[in-house]
Design brief:
16% of the residues lie in helices and 24% in strands. By secondary structure, the protein is of the alpha+beta class. The protein has one domain: Single Sheet (N-terminal domain of TfIIb), CATH 2.20.25. The protein has a four-stranded antiparallel sheet, covered by helices on one side. Strand 2 and strand 3 form a beta hairpin. The protein is elongated. The termini are far apart. It binds zinc ion. Zinc ion is lined by residues 23, 25-26, 28, 46, 48-49, 51.
């Protein structure tokens, strides 16, 4: 008798927002967004070219939102 114990291993698909982003300046995937807890400030830093940017963080903003503003700022030449 075949005991069929098929365990279904559901791997929950976690659609997680990436925590490491690409750098708009050097292209390396070494950009980390860190949010100061309690404080409404976010810092974006690239571990490769050491580009750093600090900005006000709105309470509704996720890290990816801060990152997209960072990309805009870099593209507009606001970050040096
Ligand atoms: Zn970089």
């Amino acid at each position: 008798m075949g005991r069929r114990r098929r365990k279904r291993l559901y791997k929950p698909v976690k659609r997680r927002i990436p925590r490491i982003f690409s750098c708009p300046r050097c292209g390396a995937r070494t950009v980390v967004v860190s949010v100061t807890r309690g404080k409404t400030e976010a810092t974006v830093t690239c571990g490769d070219c050491e580009l750093a940017w600090t900005t006000d963080r709105k309470s509704y903003e996720e890290k990816v939102d801060v990152y997209s503003r960072f990309v805009d700022a870099v593209l507009q030449g606001e970050v040096s």
